[in-house]
């Protein structure tokens, strides 16, 4: 392999180095970037559910298509605004430990700091969005509430399995943005890749950090299944599944594959 080759893992290693430096320099600075990730997810979720509701009223059956398309722009905002997303950091921290760029302890600190501030951001920004006029007096059968009720009605195994697949998809989109040089190509790739998990309704922990509070703050009556135990069960099994999908299947697998051959490198 050419010593000057700068492919996928060169970029991943540089990103890990920047994340570590940011956290070491300022926990609050890192936390702010993590909160910004759920700001963009909340905005993406908001426009997605409102668009879906209008579309469903105009053309029955079209709501889910429009929801998935609009939600995809959340990741674009996160990537281009350099925000810190816990589910992609599951991949980054696993690679960092495997390639000995971070100790296991420091990787856990980075990941859980990101997840904690993602949650705080999701709660804060969902509350702010719920105060806007368009989220006042939503009907009980609104697309947002129906979607959340569907999530809360899943079994732990379903949540775990869908969490795996969701983060395989998200980190495939992240890998694509690293490999591609053209901005238009990156945007198109992200829209169509994220569309897969959004349309299939797979479970993404950080997206749920935004959508669950948004539904709670916007609802005028109790949401079916929205209890503390129901929400925590979703968060736990979605998070575990996301780690398996992003951390192990994508992160660890590709890190291992790229340590075995001096010629074939991603």
Question: Would you kindly provide a brief summary of this structure?
Answer:
The protein is mainly alpha-helical. Helix content is about 75%, strand content about 0%.
Please give a structural write-up.
With 266 residues, the protein is mainly α. It is built from 11 helices and no strands. α2 packs across α6, α6 (104-130) packs parallel to α10 and α8 crosses α11 (228-260). The protein is globular.
Going by helix content, strand content and strand pairing, the class is: mainly alpha
The first-to-last residue Cα distance is 11 Å
Work out the strand percent.
under 5%
Biggest pleated sheet? none
Mean pLDDT: 94
Percent of residues in helices comes to: over 70%
Radius of gyration of CA atoms, rounded to a whole number: 19 Å
> What is the oligomeric state here?
single chain
Number of strands: 0
**Could you say which overall geometry the principal axes of the C-alpha atoms support?**
globular
Order of helices and strands: HHHHHHHHHHH
Count of discrete alpha- or pi-helical segments spanning 4 or more residues: 11
Q: Which stretches of 5+ consecutive residues score pLDDT under 50?
A: none
List keywords for this structure.
266 residues, mainly alpha, 0% strand
Please outline the helices and strands.
Elements: H1 8-25, H2 27-58, H3 63-71, H4 73-80, H5 86-98, H6 104-130, H7 143-152, H8 156-179, H9 183-200, H10 205-218, H11 228-260
């Amino acid at each position: 392999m050419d010593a000057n080759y700068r492919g996928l893992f060169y970029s991943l290693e540089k990103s890990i180095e920047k994340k570590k430096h940011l956290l070491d320099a300022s926990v609050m600075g890192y936390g702010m970037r993590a909160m910004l990730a759920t700001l963009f997810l909340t905005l993406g979720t908001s426009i997605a559910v409102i668009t879906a509701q209008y579309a469903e009223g105009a053309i029955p059956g079209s709501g889910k298509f429009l929801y998935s398309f609009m939600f995809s722009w959340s990741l674009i905002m996160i990537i281009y605004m350099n925000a810190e997303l816990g589910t992609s950091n599951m991949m980054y921290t696993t690679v960092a430990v495997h390639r000995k760029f971070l100790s296991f302890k420091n990787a856990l600190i980075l990941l859980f700091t990101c997840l904690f501030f993602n949650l705080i951001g999701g709660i804060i920004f969902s509350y702010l969005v719920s105060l806007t006029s368009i989220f006042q007096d939503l009907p009980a059968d609104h697309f947002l509430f129906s979607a959340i009720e569907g999530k809360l009605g899943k079994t732990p195994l379903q949540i775990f399995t869908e969490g795996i697949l969701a983060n395989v998809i998200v980190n495939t989109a992240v890998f694509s943005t690293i490999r591609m040089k053209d901005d238009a190509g990156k945007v198109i790739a992200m829209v169509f890749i994220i569309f897969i998990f959004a349309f299939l309704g797979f479970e993404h922990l950080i997206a749920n950090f935004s959508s669950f509070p948004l539904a709670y703050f916007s609802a005028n009556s109790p949401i079916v299944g929205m209890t503390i135990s129901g929400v925590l069960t979703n968060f736990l099994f979605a998070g575990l599944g996301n780690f398996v999908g992003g951390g192990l299947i994508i992160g660890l697998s590709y890190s291992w594959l790229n340590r075995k051959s001096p010629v074939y490198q991603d």
